[in-house]
What does this fold into?
Amino acid sequence: MLAESVRSTQSLVANQLLQIQATFDTRVTKLEAYQLTQAGRSSVADPATEAAMARLNTTMSALATQIGQMQVGESGTTSRTAGRMDANSRLMTVLMVMSTVATPIIAAVAIYAMRVH
It folds into this structure.
């Protein structure tokens, strides 16, 4: 009877330890995933990415300047000039949206690259 009680207690304790281990493993896995995500985010701020973003901003500023010069150089009716200005502002909006969308894509690629390695 004593041996059966010891086996029963041993089995109960072993099951509880397995449950605790499973809970611990789940929490550690979530913590590791969070750390990888944070590492990916910090790696996006690396010098190469910052340089690429700076070049993109410089190019967009130059493009805006060229568009402004084209607007000044154009001759024609006011409505046609206004139409061109609207088209140019739409083009600039599209370019700005594209640059805004490119930043998270670059971050996602960097995170994916870190997870692959």
Remarks:
- The longest helix spans residues 2-44.
- The chain has three helices and no strands.
- Helices lie at 2-44, 47-73, 78-116.
- Residues 2-116 form one domain.
